[in-house]
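Extended Data, record UDP-N-acetylenolpyruvoylglucosamine reductase
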Amino acid sequence: MLCKIPAAWLIEHSNANKLSVGGACVYEKHALIIINKSNANWFDIFQLARDIKEKVEVFYNISLENEVRFITTKGEIDLNNENVQF
């Protein structure tokens, strides 16, 4: 049997919504929103998104799909690529 599970539920119930990197954190009112709480740079946001995805995958063995695309002057950055050059 297949069922749909909301990503926000997975993030909250794996406690990934408690993660932060630099000034970036998960918005307390909605687990699908990353906010810049105090001078976060783009790497903080990128790394937080990667950490959230990893925590959900370890906790539930479910891989979240990226909706946001990270595009720099060098092209698109894949959140799944472990060898990203910054």
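Summary. The beta strands are 20-21, 24-26, 34-36, 70-72, 75-77.
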